[in-house]
Write a structure and sequence with these properties.
This protein has helices spanning 24-27, 31-37, 43-74, 80-130, 138-180, 182-230, 232-237, 241-293, 299-312, 319-340, 354-361, 405-412, 435-441, 456-461, 469-478, 482-486, 505-518, 535-548, 584-588, 593-598; strands at residues 5-6, 13-14, 365-372, 382-389, 394-398, 420-425, 428-429, 442-445, 523-527, 553-558, 569-574, 577-582. It is α/β, with parallel strands linked by helices. The strands form three sheets. The chain has a six-stranded mixed beta sheet with strand order 8-9-10-5-11-12, with helices on both faces. Strand 1 (5-6) and strand 2 (13-14) form a beta hairpin. The chain crosses the membrane at residues 46-72, 164-182, 188-206, 265-291, 297-317. It is found in: Cell membrane. This is Thiol reductant ABC exporter subunit CydC.
């Protein structure tokens, strides 16, 4: 098995199962700390970025200080040679400021974007391992994947390097001015602490509430927009589009109001910073004039003192805006880690080699004492189910909606683990094996198969990217879809439209089955394959599905009796339990739900 190594800061398990649970002690940590910890592999790059940023900012401060000295000295009309060093220094500082600023942006942005790319990979790996799609609404999940994930970049670029640069450059500037005039250095230190520490702390506190509401409002707007787009046909059909658009406008207005409050906080921070800068410069000028008057410093030193004090506030200028955004970034971090901390619904694999075992023992499926529920306080979705799917046979599980049929399909496909009991494939417990191994042998057609906005060819190759055209046509022939595809304008290269709008309902089901067959599974799970079809189409599709399923161990999950006279055995499930079992003829002869529905 793969060795596990936990990152103590983030809780991620490196080179391990990406669905492994994150320890509770890690989940309780501040999201900002965990987001910064994501950049730990590139600590050296960010340290270099801080040094380059300090050099750039220091060059800017020194440039104004040297220029002040040069202008003050030039007022006495000295020989040009006396100013040559200052002239060269001014040019050198001007060049170094631009070069080091460029290099600082290059280094820090490169490190931040690389970190962001790793975070995106981790998010998608977590989604693939935990299947949390049912736990988040589609639009909200999109917002978490895009906006909240990119908040990591904002924090690393704006919230990590500038404060460290301020500490380095600000401390050096205070030391230099203290050497020029001690009260001036002390005054600058006080001003920088107010503008670079007190104001940002106040901005962080004021922005925490609006920031959290902004992340929530952005997620709500994204959810509303996605729901509107996906449900547009139904909304138009039922005359509800105007109400849905009004809800989208309302969500947008909420986000706008929150962003206006956030802008007000940022404006307050900028105003406070400007006020402190002005007061400090005036204070330095006042103290400097008094010092010149009593002969403590020269007029040249006064110019250096005042203009360097003014330039020094460039060091802390970005900090209030960064601090004001920390509330929104923290809220985005909470939402991001809400995905990354989502526990998997399946246990980690303990064994490998399921395909070898099935090759030796066959592809029969055995379900014994299966009990499943979706939460500790939830009722049992399946409560002691026993059934078998012998190799090469077709077994149907039938019952009303909510009987637990789809839950059985989720267990077989390793989207969900049983609380009790076991499911064996070829005599091997599937919960002991990796989900990918199980899904390579167990394929199926979900109740609402997704068709991508691409060509028929690419939708089929999703199951087997290396499939040749001959393989694709063979799969289409098997599901009785080849003639329809040949009649299309571009055959396999025909675009099927968003969500398969260019295909009929029956064609979508056949395409999904062709995709499943192309994966060369040993077991097929057909979950309500005719749920949204009319009666005529349903009969034809069921006949084609059962024809295509010949030779596989097939579990047909359905709520109606279409085609059940062709299956080998039927199990009637209600309230999570098997109430009747037998063939179509046997069940018609027994009193119970099956005969009642058939009659």
């Amino acid at each position: 098995m793969t060795a596990k190594h936990e990152d103590p800061a983030t809780g991620f398990l490196e080179t391990a199962d990406p669905g492994a649970p994150v320890p509770e002690r890690v989940r309780r940590r501040d999201p900002l700390r965990r987001m910064i910890a994501l950049a730990r592999p590139r600590t050296g790059r960010f340290a270099l970025g801080v040094l380059l940023g300090a050099a750039a900012t220091g060059s800017g401060v020194a440039l104004l200080g040297v220029a002040a000295w040069m202008l003050a000295v030039a007022a006495d009309h000295p020989p040009i040679t006396a100013l040559s060093v200052a002239v060269v220094a001014t040019r050198a500082l001007g060049v170094s400021k631009g070069v080091t600023r460029y290099l600082e942006r290059l280094v820090t942005h490169d490190a931040a974007f690389r970190t962001l790319a790793e975070v995106r990979v981790r998010v998608y790996e977590r989604l693939a391992a935990t299947e949390p799609f049912g736990r988040f609404r589609t639009g909200d999940l999109v917002s978490r994947l895009v906006n909240d994930t990119e908040a990591t970049l904002d924090l690393l670029v704006r919230g990590l390097t500038p404060p460290l640069v301020s500490v380095v450059t600000g401390g050096a500037t205070v030391l230099v001015l203290t050497a020029v005039y001690v009260p001036g250095g002390a005054l600058l230190a006080a001003g920088l602490l107010l503008a670079g520490l007190a104001v940002p702390l106040a901005m962080a506190l004021l922005g925490r509430g609006p920031g959290k509401r902004q992340a929530e409002a952005r997620g709500a707007l994204s959810t509303t927009l996605v729901d509107t787009l996906h449900g547009a046909p139904d909304l138009v059909a039922y005359g509800a589009m105007d109400r849905q658009v009004a809800r989208a406008h309302e969500a947008d207005e909420v986000l706008t109001r929150v962003e206006q409050r956030d802008s007000a906080v940022l404006g307050l921070g900028a105003g406070a910073n400007a006020l402190i800068t002005g007061l400090t410069v005036w204070g330095a000028l006042f103290l400097g004039v008094l010092a010149v008057g009593d002969g403590t410093i020269s007029a040249v030193s006064l110019a250096v003192l005042v203009l360097t004090t003014l330039a020094a506030f460039e060091i802390v200028a970005p900090l209030p805006a960064v601090a004001g955004k920390l509330g929104a970034i923290r809220a985005s971090g909470e939402r991001l880690f809400g995905v990354l901390d989502t526990p998997a619904q399946t246990a980690p694999a303990r064994e490998e080699g399921l395909a070898d075992k099935v090759a030796e023992e066959g592809s029969s499926v055995s379900v014994r004492g299966l009990r499943v529920r979706y939460g500790p306080e939830e009722p049992w979705a399946l409560d002691g189910v026993d059934l078998d799917v012998p190799e090469g046979e077709t077994v149907a599980v039938i019952g009303p909606s909510g009987a637990g049929k789809s839950t059985l399909a989720s267990v077989l496909l390793r989207f969900l683990d049983p609380a009790e009991g076991c499911v064996e494939l070829g005599g091997a417990d599937i919960t002991a094996h990796p989900a990918d191994e199980v899904r390579a042998l167990v394929s199926g057609v979900p109740q609402d198969p997704h068709v991508f906005a691409s060509t028929v060819r690419e939708n089929l190759r999703l199951a087997r990217p290396d499939a040749t055209d001959d393989d694709l046509w063979e799969a289409l022939v098997r599901v009785s879809l080849a003639d329809e595809v040949r009649a299309m304008p571009r055959g396999l290269d025909t675009e099927v439209g968003t969500h398969g709008t260019g295909l009929s309902g029956g064609m979508v089901q056949r395409l999904a089955l062709a995709r499943a067959v192309l994966a060369s599974p040993r077991v097929l799970v057909l979950d309500e394959p005719t749920a949204h079809l009319d009666a005529d189409t349903r009969d034809a599709v069921v006949a084609d599905l059962l024809d295509a399923a010949e030779g596989y161990s097939t579990l047909l999950i359905t709520h109606d009796l279409t085609g059940l006279d062709r299956v080998d055995r039927i199990h009637v499930v209600r309230e999570g339990r098997v109430l009747q079992s037998g063939t179509h003829t046997e069940l018609l002869a027994q009193e119970g739900w099956y005969r009642d529905v058939a009659g």
